[in-house]
Amino acid sequence: MIKRALSVTREANFAEWYQTVIAEADMAEESGVRGCMVIRPWGYGIWERMQRLLDDKIKATGHENCYFPLFIPLSYFEKEAEHVDGFAKEMAVVTHHRLISDGKGGLVPDPSAKLEEPLVVRPTSETVIGTAFARWVQSWRDLPVLINQWANVVRWEMRTRMFLRTAEFLWQEGHTAHATEAEAREETLRMLEVYREFAEECVALPVVAGEKPENERFPGAVATYSIEAMMQDGKALQAGTSHFLGTNFARAQDIKFQNSEGVFEHANTTSWGVSTRMIGGLIMVHGDDDGLRVPPRLAPWQIVIVPMLRDAPEDAAVVDYCKALQKDLAGLSAFGEPVRALLDLKAAKAATKRWGWVKKGAPIVIEVGGRDVAGGNVSVLRRDRLYREDGKLDSAVVAKGKFVGGAVAALEEIQSGLFAEAKARLDANIAPAADWAAVEAHFAEGAKTPGFLEVQWSKPTGAALEKVVERLKGLKLTLRNVPNDAAPADGACIFTGDAAVERVLVGRSY
Amino acid sequence: MIKRALSVTREANFAEWYQTVIAEADMAEESGVRGCMVIRPWGYGIWERMQRLLDDKIKATGHENCYFPLFIPLSYFEKEAEHVDGFAKEMAVVTHHRLISDGKGGLVPDPSAKLEEPLVVRPTSETVIGTAFARWVQSWRDLPVLINQWANVVRWEMRTRMFLRTAEFLWQEGHTAHATEAEAREETLRMLEVYREFAEECVALPVVAGEKPENERFPGAVATYSIEAMMQDGKALQAGTSHFLGTNFARAQDIKFQNSEGVFEHANTTSWGVSTRMIGGLIMVHGDDDGLRVPPRLAPWQIVIVPMLRDAPEDAAVVDYCKALQKDLAGLSAFGEPVRALLDLKAAKAATKRWGWVKKGAPIVIEVGGRDVAGGNVSVLRRDRLYREDGKLDSAVVAKGKFVGGAVAALEEIQSGLFAEAKARLDANIAPAADWAAVEAHFAEGAKTPGFLEVQWSKPTGAALEKVVERLKGLKLTLRNVPNDAAPADGACIFTGDAAVERVLVGRSY
């Protein structure tokens, strides 16, 4: 059996494996502040790459970035009843603006500095951004308003898990206002498609894009769409959402405009977000028993050069050779950007560094020793094919020029290979289920890689929907989404026996 | 007299002019949340450019970005007495994590969801990052730790002014730990120099880099350095600071390591920050009576193309011509990046758009009408030379090819011209003052563009320094910094009459 770099395998304990990857790949750590994590350099570097690539797409579709306040006065929340019901249970509330000594060497909030109106730390910004939209929008000429912000938000979660559910997290939230329902609905779907494309092209994360059922809607939304990814344990991760808000928020916040006939109308608004949760998805889709594997488009460093030094006079020649290699690589362009090549000169053993980069998931690790320099070679380790069939490390000695000449193609191959692997797994683990019994059998105790089941249903609402949700809960299942590309219904609803109107995915979820 | 684009001139009322530029140039607005502003697209676009350029320099000097929690437990602050004294008076305190209905349609913090330990919204992150450093640093091999974070911070200011002093603001804060005092001091000065270079090269903002006197030190620092810029009203703006913290924070937070002899030592730490305040400096240094002038390196759009349309069939040809021009310009490279050229197709009159871009300060505005298309020309308006001597707009008709061929040189000229203009003003308004009477005379009631005075002093400390500070306060003056490149002292201290040890700048400040 091959000895792997991590102390726990995915098969032995997926949850523990996830935490181990996060620690060993230098992604994040507990901060000591309840529910908040420290995002470490490699993890934050991946987030910066996500930001750059997604931001380009958000700007290319006509949106501009702004920044809105962290704090939201309580009264803003009171206006949209459904929205506050959805969020009020888990918000951080600022009540004082000063500390004073408690007389015992400690500090306490100063009773004389109590805020007249408490402030909420934003859990999402519809209310505060809507208030700005109400100021900005007077005439149909002011529409559409197409805004995005990159920010931190806070939701007081009881049980937290790094990247997947933390009290504070980082995200982008887009907010738009339109003159007509049709335009706002088009925008909602446009951004869902931007998310699908970003997830699949950049994160190499295959997803199912579709509409969430009524019970899974964003509080206050008319329709919520999501991209759903499948983790290696078969569970679903909602990796991005796009909401059509109708005129619900516009009515609460008085976003109205004079149309071309001079009549006042409420705007139709949308909102959409992707967060650091996507990093959790990346780990659980691409990680293996040696650590993380980062798709080259997201890798802070795509190629890492590790010189094998011996504290000897020959070291200088090895370092010079590595510097020239780094320069050659940095002159290349992959995915429309300069190749990111690092020369790792930290004070540590070459083997320690090599395994460090394997665990971090750098796509290609190059080792260079005195013999490589003499022969004009490099030793190449590709993260996507780490071992040979005999279980030995698949490190190949290649002529330096040949490696440089093929480096861009190798990065492209790793990117598409990671996607293909995940896509094959997703496709293999979505199956139709003809009736409730089939669902029960599939998700029975001990079933492995349960994946998603596609079932036909009559799309019940209200109390009838609640009954369905309860029934699914008994199997620890939730409704994921109605895939945009699902076939039309042609049978009976597995819950009610009525004629089905569409196909919906069910699965276990994070 | 030339009719200018703004309703108020700098000379008539500098403070009102500043607010007017912010409004008319689409920079920011009041949010309705006390002390917090909304940063609008053009303002945020400038911040994004600042982030990109400064981040490149921070990374080039070996720092990695991370992200640390927004919330800091009270107990973290209690450890560093001087630090908490400096900040405790103005922090937002989170005391509850849930809201409930007040029974009258409103919301109140849920008394049953009171936090055991209140959380402070970070005013700066030394304490929480230091706690992480204590986990990360064990051996001399772990040093230096070179970290930066881009984040929002909150200081509960009583009087706020957009960009200059807001309760919430955006910044980067660098934090480093080193094995020796010498290395940490070197880092402190290295980052001061990075700030000077960034301010002068990118923001076209000439600054004086130097050490702040003892009374102006960051709470808990051993030494604080700053870059000081001079606004058009002669006042000083501290535009960036770099702090050598010695072992003060390391002792409070237990950041210690085993040196190469196996002995435990406390690390020496530094911190340094630049914030959205820099945008206030940009406005007050480069703005004029027609609005903002943005240095090309920071302009979200460097060249804006305004087609002059008449709702006529010829419009299509004008738009096509503009699109081709935009493509030509986007293919150019200025300051090592692709030229950012916008084609403004919004539904508004060409003259309205032109003046909108003038007020925003886009470096070059191109207008294209049917006659320009017929002649193969463009009408060019440069923001740095808006009017001819006769007071008419200096819009020049130029052959399209000639304009494109000279566009990069024009952008470079605007960038260096803005710097030269500001630098000449700074130099002209720093003067030596031989004695206290000269200081009094210079800053007498009604004195215009007071600028900075350089005085010799004996660098008093403690109570003697407090007396100096009080005396300066009588003239509304503060000690700015001791310029790194100041000549050695050669006279008497203007405050005490003792032999002077150095030269220090005094001035009025924001």
Explained architecture:
Chain A has 510 residues and is of the alpha+beta class. Chain A folds into three domains: 14-73 and 125-286, BirA Bifunctional Protein, domain 2 (2-Layer Sandwich), CATH 3.30.930.10; 303-413, Rossmann fold; 430-507, 2-Layer Sandwich (Translation Initiation Factor IF3), CATH 3.30.110.30. In chain A, 34% of the residues lie in helices and 26% in strands. Chain A has 14 helices and 28 strands. In chain A, the strands form eight sheets. An eight-stranded mixed β-sheet of chain A has the order 3-9-10-16-13-12-11-27, sandwiched between helices. Chain A has a five-stranded mixed β-sheet with strand order 20-17-21-22-23, with helices on both faces. In chain A, a hairpin with a 5-residue loop joins strand 6 and strand 7. The two termini of chain A are 31 Å apart. The mean pLDDT of chain A is 95. At the A-B interface, strand 2, helix 2, strand 3, strand 4 and helix 3 of A face strand 2, helix 2, strand 3, strand 4 and helix 3 of B.
- Using only C-alpha atoms, the radius of gyration of chain A works out to 26 Å
Class from secondary-structure proportions of chain A = alpha+beta
Mean of residue pLDDT values of chain A:
95
- Largest sheet, spatial ordering of strands of chain A: 3-9-10-16-13-12-11-27
Count of discrete alpha- or pi-helical segments spanning 4 or more residues of chain A: 14
Question: Could you name the key traits of this structure?
Answer:
alpha+beta; BirA Bifunctional Protein, domain 2; Translation Initiation Factor IF3; 510 residues; homodimer; 3 domains; Rossmann fold; 34% helix
